Amino acid sequence: MRMRFTTTHSQDQEDTRKVKTQTTSQTVEVRADGEGLVSHAGAFLLVELSDRLGLTAGLSEAMAPTRERRSAHNPGVVLRDLAVAVADGGDCLTDLGVLRGQEALFGAVASQTTAHRVIKSIDAVAREAIRAARAKALERAWDAGARPQTITLDIDASLVGAHSEKEHAAGNYKGGFGFHPLLCYLSETGEPLAAVLRPGNAGANTAADHFEVLQLALEQLPQADLGREILARADIGGRTHAFISDCRQAGIRFSVGYGVDERVREATLAVSESAWRQAIDAEGKEREGAQVAELTDRLDLSAWPEGTRLIVRRERPHPGAQFQVFDSEGYRHTAFITDQGDADIAALELRHRRHARVEDSIRVAKETGMRNLPFGAFEHNQAWLEISLAAQAILRWSALLCLEGRLALAEPKRVRQRLLHVAGRIVRSGRRTALRLPRSWPWAEALATAFARLRALPIALSP
pTM for this structure? Predict the structure, then answer.
């Protein structure tokens, strides 16, 4: 099939008497008969990374009990392909077709029907095995160079809308309809650790849900790292006695938002000006207009675990900021409790304030399969949530292990546009196969370097 297009470029030049227009035409002939060409060639980086870290083998082992005797497709590989398709920008099963049309690079990819059958086969036991496969891949990624210096678990909830009747979807506190998953991310790297799918009307401060997502997150960490100091952070939704006790029993530190009620307000107003300490910004410099003070000795905290501290922050708000009912004298107040022993309360407050990073991680999650839960059955959407977590993980591992500079810090949209969606040509010579990237593509060298760095990583020999 041939199509002919004419492109026109115009440049207007105006002087005091007339406008002169210069026009050039170029005819572009379009044919659907190319051979050896592949689109979304950069997504193969994610396929190979999954293989090298053992995620593919782990998923295959996890899904082995569900495989039909004569099944043409390994269900673990189907899950790997779904995760890659979601990381590449897909948000439903049909988007697997982008890889299916690139068999020269991605191999045989399952049909939508087969993929749906794999999703339907995932029950609670399979989900646990899938999480175990992801945990093992995370350990290998850390051993390959992605291990963070500190471990901070950020827990937060987010609303996911539903535009049709779906099992357990419900109205939420903002007047919408859908789900209210609770998620946990590793603050230092942005790696997704755990997610618990909940109805839209689930409470923001449900202790049992916080404990569940915390336990799932800890299970993702390598055994050797569980002995390190771990900090769990949450907003005011995590301020329950049960959750704080869970943290203490698990042997991890906590930093949790605390409401500014009448007692906190009175204690805050009683603080002398000399007791306030200047707050600091991310670079450790003094933050103008913001101070912190400790209220531990001014309030009864005996109901909380021994060593619990209460720290309050006051700040001159930016124009348009919303005040709370107890804010006074032009300040906006926030507070949190923690059991960290650091004497520098400004550093503790900065550490707690960095919990806001989880909002960036959740935004990325919604760009990576979590904006829409595509199935009617709750259990199938739970499976999709695990696929989304795997997709987010391989994107983060690719950034941590394979990319450099700004691309290592870029969000998925930019990575997709510049690396994953680039076209290439498959060239075979003898027994060798090469992927040729466009010489003129500005990020071709960065992608080639990413593949080189990937192939320098050790290969996982077993799940």
Answer: 0.91
